[in-house]
Amino acid sequence: MGGGVSRLITLCFVCFQEPPQQILFHIHKYKYEFHVIIVGHCTKVPRNSNLENLRSGYLFPEISRHESEHLRRNPDASLIRLGIGDTTQPIPDTITLAMAEQVRGLSTIQGYRGYGAEQGNMPLRKAIAGKFYQDMGIKANEIFVSDGAQCDISRLQMLLGSNVTVAVQDPSFPAYIDSSVLVGQAGELEEETGKYGNIIYMNCGPENDFFPDLSTIPRTDIIFLCSPNNPTGHAASWQQLKQLVAFAKANGSIIVHDSAYAAYIRDGSPRSIFAIPGAKEVGLSLQVAIEISSFSKFAGFTGVRLGWTVVPEELLYSNGFPVIKDFNRIVCTCFNGASNIAQAGGLACLSTDGYQDLCKVIDYYMENAKILVDGFTSLGWKVYGGKNAPYIWVHFPGMSSWNVFAEILKKTNIVTIPGRGFGPAGEEYIRVSAFGQRQITLEALRRLNSFL
Predict the structure, then answer these.
(1) CATH number of 57-90+357-450
(2) What is the 3-state secondary structure (H, E, C) of the chain?
(3) Domain Aminotransferase class I/classII large spans what residues (predicted)?
(4) Which pTM was predicted?
(5) CATH number corresponding to 93-353
């Protein structure tokens, strides 16, 4: 094309707003060569506007994309993954044998089982109540067994609907915000701040002991709180949770408490929101809270998929209707119950031998955490977390968290998580996971020592 830049462009005219001929004219005007492939068919069905309002990509697949790109450029790189919090230690035999027995039973007339209760098998619900909620007023029928806490976050958002107001910790696990966007609670994304207009971001940094200053937080219908927190590793104290429960009661709010990492708490902090004492014979926490939890991180069930949600009978909507009845309807409509095989494993986790074996695995990860905390501290960086959770929150003052992530990946072949991915308050931080093999953790420190 006479003196112009010559390039080959492949176009897919699936859903352009302008007709193909008009687009081709624009390309021709700038003297580009082109050939056209027209594929697909545009329906008249509009895209869900809530999906259009999501940020470009969910954090963890985005990290995987960066990993893949790094390996494409450096095919011989020996990658160490201290980013996504996936467990690495084998599940103890006491637990896998129970699952294997369940599987073998499916091959027999006596052992075959089809559909189970959508809410979960009652022996497991009773075991969860006895192990984690003894003397807290929680009954087995208030526990809904699921395929994981992240799935339950979305089911709770479906339960709550688009008309509620929401507060989240900043930084926090991305699913709370993204699921709020999906159901239409969040409002528009403000590009300058990186925040959604209708979400209240509760700053949780070292200046306020990683817990929101409730005197500055306006009333919202729902308050999401993760303790121990992902990503900062902070476990809320008894006093902090008491303040939050009283705050929710005074405002008529519901707390959604994520306790997925509760088994890692070492300093005596409460492991459940329902451990907070209330007034008279009914605890205040039963009136204002829902709790979600998981076997993923404490039992290595990230691939097995098993969790639970507690919805107390005392928790009521503003019109007096029990929340548990609506959640039961959501579960029965949208879920056919957790795998019987996974539930057999869950029951074995809560046996005396199974739980003791799991505690040894948790100790292993927490020793990794101590090694990482000591290592980063010795390098002169300010480090948080790693004491009540398997995450280390490292501060790089004045630096972009994505830039720190990129430099560490480039120079050491170590994958971390940029703090900005957990919210605006995560800028200048990276999250480092202790879910690794011991020798790999030590090798990571050697590389970091050389780099930093």
Answers:
(1) 3.90.1150.10
(2) CCCCCCCCCEEECCCCCCCHHHHHHHHHHCCCCCEEECCCCCCCCCCCHHHHCCCCCCHHHHHHHHHHHHHHHCCCCCCEECCCCCCCCCCCHHHHHHHHHHHHHCCCCCCCCCCCCCCCCHHHHHHHHHHHCCCCCCCHHHEEEECCHHHHHHHHHHHHCCCCCEEEEECCCHHHHHHHHHCCCCCCEECCCCEECCEEEEECCHHHCCCCCHHHCCCCCEEEEECCCCCCCCCCCHHHHHHHHHHHHHHCCEEEEECCCHHHCCCCCCCCHHHCCCECCECHHHHHEEEEEECHHHHCCCCCCCEEEECCCCCECCCCCEHHHHHHHHHHHHCCCCCHHHHHHHHHHCCHHHHHHHHHHHHHHHHHHHHHHHHHHHCCCEEEECCCCCEEEEECCCCCHHHHHHHHHHHHCEECEEHHHHCHHHCCEEEEECCCCHHHHHHHHHHHHHHC
(3) 79-437
(4) 0.89
(5) 3.40.640.10
